[in-house]
Write a structure and sequence with these properties.
This protein is about 55% helix and about 0% strand. It is mostly helical. It has a domain at about 1-25.
């Protein structure tokens, strides 16, 4: 039921609930590798602009 409501697989729902029960949080653990190019703030700003002006060119 939840999987259909959130348009994802039952495994995704099960894993998310399991992670929350294990850690008490729904955040992903930090991973090694290259740091993100855009900060969370800049990503949100980019999404806002593209929603406002969908045909904007990059």
């Amino acid at each position: 039921e939840l999987a259909a409501e959130f348009c994802c697989t039952t495994k995704c729902i099960r894993d998310t609930i399991h992670q929350y029960r294990q850690t008490g949080s729904n955040k992903s653990r930090p991973r090694s590798g290259r740091p993100p190019v855009l900060s969370r703030y800049k990503k949100r700003k980019l999404f806002r602009v593209t929603r406002k002006i969908p045909k904007i060119k990059y």
